[in-house]
Design goal:
3 domains, about 450 residues, binds magnesium ion, globular, Rossmann fold, 5-stranded parallel β-sheet, about 50% helix, binds adenosine-5'-triphosphate, single chain, two-stranded antiparallel sheet, Helicase, Ruva Protein, domain 3, alpha/beta
């Protein structure tokens, strides 16, 4: 799991780390007696410092990689064509210590987005992130911030769709005392708060035309004016914006200023919908299972084969956010094994039918032989899942029970993206072992 941490210059970062270590050493040296509670507090601090040091190291390497000619990230490649395989691209990102909070797989389109974000991060260029709701636009905006030179500065997020039109200007640029009824004191706006850092303009397509004009002016001049004031204030704010709407189409219809669109979208990144990168569903399931069991302070939870099949095939109109919500709901409602019956009604309504064959009839037009093949694949997958569950994920036992060659079974598991680890249980409780729950 990769986490965000703040970065200053290498020297600054190391200086503050050393300072914290010294404080820790002093509290150890001068403590007359250390009780159990103190020990666990100190241990926690030590662990935090260790994580900080590791992350610092990663960032320094990342900086070196973007600064030094020889170690610069390789040029972006198209997802199609003869370039590197997606697995290699994924590995290369990891090796460059790309900072990302979450998990992602080998989808070519998503890797395109990550690589563009990585390239854009150390620049000052405005980035426009496009994608359906819940695909991870805000997460990617933080990636741009966390992998750039401003990562130790503020990241200010503004939901442009949630601010009433009459308050927009004051919210973004601040106001002077007495500028309007209720303005009882001077107030800084979001742009000033994000000075030297990054401002994330979420749902930028919802900005009313009047607000668009003002935003354009700020982007052109790097200056703001608080409402009710004549004084121009220079701001140094990197702009990253996001939308789930087609801004260019809106611009053509006259609903969004074309000049603003071009200002905001110097770098464009599109995050694909989850249903178009299904290879990531197992990774996300593990990731959110781990997060949910930790946050809800509960024991491990397994997904029944039937539920697993459903979640692998569901269309996720709400994308990753919806998947996360489903897992949290399960972690709250289910005991050791979550099943289809724990799904919210709207999810089942969205995609009715037998989970095993749910996806089969979905994509029309399909020939009869394609439908038969899909049905046979779905049945094969369920059969394997059942067999794995019965023998606690032991591939050798599956092979023996099904009278198949072990290599053949392994090939089948690979074909269906199944991991035998996910079917291991502890002897006493019948639960997954901690190692198998939510590992990436
Ligand atoms: N690759 C990922 N790994 C782990 N968690 C993720 C990933 N992508 C998104 N998430 C999680 O999914 C949820 C939705 O992500 P985010 O808020 O970034 O989406 P969004 O595109 O901004 O959504 P909206 O358009 O509705 O504002 C968040 O909880 C986020 O942490
Ligand atoms: Mg968002």
């Amino acid at each position: 799991m990769r986490k965000f941490v703040r970065r200053g210059s290498a020297a600054q970062g190391l200086g503050s780390l050393l300072e914290k270590i010294e404080i820790l050493r002093a509290s150890l040296r001068w403590s007359a007696k250390t009780n159990e509670v103190d020990i666990s507090k100190l241990l926690k601090q030590c662990n935090e410092l260790r994580d900080e040091a590791v992350n610092q190291l990663r960032r320094d390497r990342m900086l070196a990689a973007t600064e030094g000619d020889e170690t610069k990230p390789e040029p972006l490649r198209q997802s199609t064509g003869t370039a590197k395989s997606t697995a290699d691209r994924r590995k290369a990102l990891d090796e460059r210590q790309f900072v990302f909070e979450g998990v992602f797989g080998d989808s070519a389109e998503l890797l395109d987005a990550m690589e563009i974000a990585e390239r854009a991060a150390p620049t000052e260029l405005p980035v426009l992130i496009q994608g359906e709701s819940g695909t991870g636009k805000e997460l990617l905006a933080k990636v741009v911030h966390a992998n750039g030179d401003r990562s130790d500065k503020t990241f200010v997020s503004v939901n442009c769709g949630a601010i009433p039109e009459n308050l927009l200007e004051s919210e973004l640029f601040g106001h002077k005392k007495g500028a309007f009824t209720g303005a009882s004191s001077d107030r800084r706006g979001k742009f000033e708060s994000a000075d030297t850092g990054t401002i994330f303009l979420d749902e930028v397509g919802e900005l009313p035309l009047q607000g668009q004009v003002k935003l354009l002016r700020v982007l052109q001049a790097s200056e703001i004016q608080r409402v009710g004031s004549d004084q121009a204030i220079t701001v140094d704010t990197r702009v990253v914006s996001a939308t789930n709407r087609d801004l260019l189409a809106m611009a053509r219809r006259g609903e969004f200023r074309e000049d603003l669109y071009y200002r905001l979208s110097v770098i464009q990144v599109t995050i694909p919908a989850l249903r178009d990168r299904r290879d990531e569903i197992p990774l996300l399931l593990d990731y959110f299972l781990e997060e949910a069991t930790e946050k809800l302070k509960r024991g491990p939870m397994q997904l029944s084969p039937r539920l697993h099949a459903f979640l692998m095939n569901y269309r996720y109109p709400g994308n990753i956010r919806e998947l996360r919500n489903i897992i949290f709901r399960m972690a709250c409602l289910a005991d050791e094994v979550a099943d289809v019956r724990h799904l919210p009604a709207h999810v089942l309504e969205e995609q009715p039918g037998d989970p095993a064959v749910v996806d089969i009839m979905q994509e029309t037009p399909r020939s009869l032989s394609e439908v038969k093949k899909a049905a046979s694949d779905a049945a094969e997958r369920l059969y394997l899942e059942q067999a794995l569950s019965e023998v606690n994920g032991k591939v050798t036992d599956v092979a023996r029970n099904l009278k198949l060659n072990r290599t053949h079974v392994q090939g089948l598991l690979k074909k269906h993206g199944l991991s035998s680890r996910n079917y291991k249980r502890t002897k006493n409780t019948g639960n997954q072992t901690p190692d198998n729950v939510g590992t990436q």
